């Protein structure tokens, strides 16, 4: 039997109440008002944007935010305030805790929080981005903790009721993996600047004599003007923050819905597919193969234990394959890493990012290692998960003349080790590669530049968040990005808990 939750009961009752006139009409008008900037930016009608959110089963997120905005909004025509009207007509059905919860929601200013830890089905640990001096807070959150990950952001109200911290019904998610945080920061900065300028111009009009009398004595008169401006700016900013966050969430969400999903391809234009082939290897072969691989000019040794090589080739000037978002790793000399090889135990493992490269690499290896033989086993993982779709699956290859042990499957612990080694090599090389996200600079260059350090921190958060999303629900271990933070001298910026 589910535990009774007065806050959920109060929220559900409020949402039902808002469906009655005149609040339904006011809610619909507010929803369209919040979507007007979205429609203007995307050259659409606000009604069209609203219908899209309804069709995608996302409108409840925006509607929840709109109801909280209405909760404390004053109207000229009666009923003047949603909270008062609801408590007067339906409050008797709620217990004292339910009424206290709604009062706390109306009185608590919203903020933007960064997720530092998410324990699915249990809680979140968050940091208030507008109060850097505040300590991280652990918040009971069963639903949000299932779809939020470290470094995601959320627009929300953090309510304290009877010494317990909880989020109100509104959670506006801004996943780090979407890459919108820099734009979100810019929108919030613009809002703060506009309010600051407005307060500076209208301070005397905004603060009536009665309000002045309520202020401490040191905030009255000309000498207290600066403090009054700061106070009023904070009050107005928090008052306008939830509408701004709701519009930003709708903008990013609708823009993503209307944008076609890019095709992931490598630099050859081949669809990305993560493949691993494992070849049987005897001790005598290991010595000969090591010498052959070390001697090959296109094989670059990237580690000694266990021995590992990259097959490196210069990228072609044009791609004949499919068009799409080209992803690949670059070698030290600037060439493209076509494949990775790892000698471990009685196996030589080969990793590639397309079926075409698997064929090319096997042909190259046969030329270098004539006694290579057929692969012991072969597995494939779709890499749509790189965009957060988590569609990981593997399937065995079907050779016409399989080796005697071709039916073996790659042991999970071996596959996990291979993936972790591959990711480690990939990300460590990336630290010295120019990245478009960093304006063509390398992560290491940005980490050494105080003015660019925030950019590389944002990139690290994106990598860490993407790894958490990639492995969520799969039983896999996400790549430990702490080594990247350490390599860049940014360990103190990791926000450890």
Tell me the major beta sheet: 6 strands, antiparallel
Secondary structure: number of strands? 13
* Uncertain residue ranges: 316-326, 384-408
State the end-to-end CA separation: 34 Å
Task: Give an account of the 3D structure.
This protein is elongated. It has a 6-stranded antiparallel beta sheet with strand order 8-9-11-12-7-13, with helices on both faces. The chain has a 5-stranded antiparallel beta sheet with strand order 3-2-1-4-5. It has a two-stranded parallel ribbon with strand order 6-10. The model is unreliable at 316-326 and 384-408 (pLDDT under 50). Helix 2 crosses helix 4 (59-71), helix 2 (23-42) crosses helix 10 and helix 8 (181-206) packs antiparallel against helix 10 (225-258). It has helices spanning 6-17, 23-42, 46-55, 59-71, 82-90, 96-107, 144-147, 181-206, 209-214, 225-258, 283-295, 355-368, 412-430, 443-448, 453-471, 482-487; strands at 111-119, 123-128, 137-140, 153-161, 164-174, 264-265, 273-280, 299-303, 308-313, 325-326, 336-344, 347-352, 377-382. The chain is α+β, with helices and mostly antiparallel strands. The protein has 5 domains: 1-107, no CATH class; 110-167; 181-258, no CATH class; 264-409; 431-497, no CATH class.
């Amino acid at each position: 039997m589910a535990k009774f939750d007065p806050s959920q009961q109060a929220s559900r009752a409020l949402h039902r109440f808002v469906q009655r006139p005149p609040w339904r009409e006011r809610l619909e008008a507010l929803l369209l008002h919040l979507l007007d900037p979205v429609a203007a930016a995307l050259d659409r009608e606000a009604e069209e944007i609203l219908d899209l959110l309804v069709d995608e089963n996302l409108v409840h997120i925006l509607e929840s935010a709109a109801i909280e905005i209405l909760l404390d909004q004053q109207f000229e025509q009666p009923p003047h305030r949603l909270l008062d009207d609801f408590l007067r007509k339906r409050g008797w059905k709620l217990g004292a805790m339910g009424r206290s919860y709604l009062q706390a929601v109306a009185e608590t200013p919203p903020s933007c929080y960064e997720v530092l830890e998410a324990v699915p089905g249990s809680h979140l640990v968050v940091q208030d981005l507008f109060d850097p001096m505040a300590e991280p807070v652990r918040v009971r959150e069963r639903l949000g903790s299932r779809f939020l990950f470290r470094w995601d952001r959320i627009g929300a109200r953090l309510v304290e009721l009877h010494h317990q911290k909880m989020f109100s019904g509104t959670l506006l998610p801004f996943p780090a993996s979407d890459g919108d945080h820099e734009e979100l920061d810019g929108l919030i900065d613009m809002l703060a600047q506009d309010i600051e300028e407005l307060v500076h111009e209208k301070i005397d009009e905004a603060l009536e004599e009665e309000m002045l009398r309520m202020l401490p004595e040191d905030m009255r008169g000309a000498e207290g003007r600066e403090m009054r401006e700061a106070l009023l700016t904070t009050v107005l900013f928090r008052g306008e923050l939830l509408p701004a966050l709701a519009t930003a969430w709708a903008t990013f969400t609708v823009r993503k819905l209307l944008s076609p999903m890019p095709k992931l391809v490598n630099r050859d234009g081949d669809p990305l597919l993560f493949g691993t082939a494992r070849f049987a290897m005897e001790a005598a072969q290991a010595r000969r193969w090591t010498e052959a691989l070390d001697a090959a000019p296109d094989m670059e040794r990237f580690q000694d234990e266990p021995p590992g090589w990259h097959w490196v080739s210069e990228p072609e000037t044009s791609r004949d394959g499919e068009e799409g978002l080209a992803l690949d790793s670059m070698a030290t000399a600037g060439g493209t890493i076509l494949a990775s090889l790892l000698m471990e135990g009685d196996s030589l493992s080969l990793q590639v990012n397309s079926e075409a490269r698997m064929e090319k690499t096997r042909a190259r290896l046969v030329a270098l290692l004539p006694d290579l033989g057929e692969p012991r086993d072969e597995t494939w993982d779709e890499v749509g998960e790189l965009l957060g779709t988590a569609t990981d699956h593997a399937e065995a290859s079907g050779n016409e003349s399989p080796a005697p042990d071709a039916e073996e499957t790659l042991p999970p612990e071996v596959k996990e080790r291979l993936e972790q080694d591959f990711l480690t090599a990939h990300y460590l090389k990336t630290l010295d590669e120019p990245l478009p996200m960093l304006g063509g600079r390398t992560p290491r260059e940005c980490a050494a530049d105080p003015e660019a350090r925030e950019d590389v921190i944002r990139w690290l958060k994106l990598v860490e968040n993407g790894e958490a999303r990639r492995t969520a629900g799969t039983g896999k271990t996400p790549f430990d990005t702490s080594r990247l933070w350490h390599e860049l001298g940014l360990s103190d910026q990791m926000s450890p808990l």
